[in-house]
Each structure stands twice: as C-alpha cells, then as structure tokens.
Amino acid sequence: MLRCLLVAAALLLSGCAPGFDTPGSDTRAPIDCATVKCVALTFDDGPTPYTDRLVDVLQQSDAKATFFMIGNKVAANPDGAARVAEAGMEIGNHTWEHPNMTTIGA
C-alpha cells in the first residue's frame, strides 16, 4: 500500500493527474480527457489504515480518485468510508468480502 501512496503522490506532484489545468486556482477550466492524456487514480480493498493519509495527499494536491471499497471493511470502518465520501472522492463497490475468485465454481 505504501508503494501505491508513493506512486499516487508522484503522479499528483508531477501534474499528470486529470481534472483541471491549474491546480489550486479558482479559475480552473475542466480538462477534456478525450483530447488530453489523463490518468485515473483508483484504489481497491479499502477502507484501510492508509485511507486517511491517502485522502490527505489527494486533497493537498487538489486531486480526486475512485475508491473501490469492500463492504465488510466499510461496515467495520464506516468513518473511513465517510471521510472518502466527504472529501468528494468517487466510491465504487468492490464486493462484500472480496472472495478469491479462482476458488469459486461457475
């Protein structure tokens, strides 16, 4: 997970993340990812103990990401999931318990 944080931070600090053309400015113009190269940041299997720090890094960089959360981890840590939502990040469903799909029959 630390590696993911470092990669995300490097992308954000290098200006490669999608969103707006002038980070931190109040007069930002949306970027059209159909005409400009964009990067989508996604994070799976949360919320985890690293989620708060990750949200902090994203907010400091004025960036957004999609968090694919596991239902039973959300149930165990609703405050972590709420923090992601309150920060304006997108949330996706990543199953209830993230079973090992290779061990499940047809």
From the spread of the alpha carbons, the general shape counts as flat
Helix content: 25-40%
Structural class: alpha/beta
* Largest sheet entry: 3 strands, parallel
Widest sheet: strand ordering? 1-2-3
Order of helices and strands: HEHEHHE
Number of helices: 4
* Portion in strands: 5-15%
Task: State mean pLDDT (0 to 100 scale).
Answer: 81
Uncertain residue ranges: 4-22
**How many strand units?**
3
Q: Alpha-carbon distance between the termini? A: 31 Å
Instruction: State Rg.
Output: 15 Å
Describe this structure in words.
By secondary structure, the chain is an alpha/beta fold. The chain has helices at 2-14, 51-60, 71-76, 78-86; strands spanning 42-46, 66-69, 90-93. It is flat.
Describe this protein with a few key phrases.
single chain; 106 residues; alpha/beta; three-stranded parallel sheet; 4 helices; 3 strands; 36% helix; flat
Could you give a quick summary of the protein structure above?
The chain is an alpha/beta fold and 106 residues long. The protein has helices spanning 2-14, 51-60, 71-76, 78-86; strands at residues 42-46, 66-69, 90-93.
